[in-house]
Amino acid sequence: MAHPGPVAEIANFPIASTTTIEQSGTTAGEAWASAIDMMRNTPGCDEIFWSRWVENKDMVQLIINWDSYDHHMNFTKSPDFPKLIEKINSVCNGPPVMYHAHLTPHPPDAAFNAPVVEMFTAYFPASISEVEKAKWYHNFKNFLEKTIVDAEGLVAETHGWVMEEIEHGADKEKCRAFVCGVGWESVDKHMAYGATESFKSASEPIKGGLVGAEMHHVVFVGGQS
C-alpha cells in the first residue's frame, strides 16, 4: 500500500534519567548524538525533535519528520540501520514504542518549537470503522476550534491518525490511535486551561468511543535538519 506525502515517525524510548544522553563526552551522550546524526544525514529525513518527558524523566520522546513513509522504510533496509539500532539499544533499558502519522498541519514546526509541547494520544478499538473515525474527527475539529479561541497560552497544534495498530494498556490491546501535539507557552498555561469549564464542556464529545488516552509534556530539542 502506498503512503504518499510527508510522515512523522513518533517513538518513545525507555532511557533512565541517570543515562547521560544529554552530556557530550560521556559514552551514552556520544552514542545518542551519533544516532541522531546518523538519522539526520539519511536521505528523506527532514527534521528531528527529541526530549525527555516532563512527567517521567525515564522516557524519551523522538519525532522524525520524513519526506515520505518509503524514505523511512528504505532506511530500515540499509546497511546503516543495524548500526543505528545498536547505538540506540546501548542507551535504552527496554523496547521502544514506535509508529507513524501524517500530521496536519505539516511541517509541525510551529507546535514542536513551542516552549513546551503537550503530546496527547487517543486510543480506539481496532475495529473502529471509517464512519466512526470521521464522526469522532468532526467532534475533535469542533473541540479544536473552540480551544484555539478560548485557551490562553496555546501556541500551535498538529494532529493526525496513526497509520499502524499500536498496543495500549497493561493487556497490550491492539488499538487504532490518534495523536495530537499542542504547543503551549508553559505547562502551567495548559493545566490552567484544562481546569476551566470551557475545556470540560468542549472536550466531552471527544471522549466518546475511546478505550483510553495518554498525555505528557516535552520540551523539544527541535528543528534539527
Describe the structure.
The chain is built from seven helices and ten strands. The chain is of the alpha+beta class. The strands form two sheets. Strands 4-1-3-2-10 form a five-stranded antiparallel sheet. Strands 5, 6, 7, 8 and 9 form a five-stranded antiparallel sheet that branches. The chain starts with 6 loop residues before the first strand and ends with a strand.
Note the main attributes of this structure.
225 residues; alpha+beta; 10 strands; 32% helix; 5-stranded antiparallel beta sheet
Number of helices: 7
Series of secondary-structure elements, N-terminal to C-terminal: EHEEHHEHEHEEEHHEE
**Ranges with pLDDT <50 over ≥5 residues?**
none
Q: CA-to-CA gap between the ends?
A: 28 Å
Strand count, sense and barrel status of the largest sheet are:
5 strands, antiparallel
- Tell me the radius of gyration: 18 Å
- Round the mean pLDDT to the nearest integer and report it: 95
Strands, total number: 10
Q: In percent, how helical is the residue content?
A: 25-40%
Q: Structural class, from secondary structure content? A: alpha+beta
Dominant shape: globular
Strand order of the largest sheet: 4-1-3-2-10
Percent in strands: 25-35%
Summarize the structure.
With 225 residues, the chain is of the alpha+beta class. The chain is 32% helix and 32% strand.
Topology:
Blueprint: E1 7-14, H1 27-40, E2 45-52, E3 59-66, H2 69-76, H3 81-89, E4 97-101, H4 109-112, E5 116-125, H5 130-150, E6 154-161, E7 166-168, E8 173-184, H6 187-194, H7 197-203, E9 212-218, E10 221-224
Antiparallel strand pairs: 1-3, 1-4, 2-3, 2-10, 5-8, 5-9, 6-8, 7-8
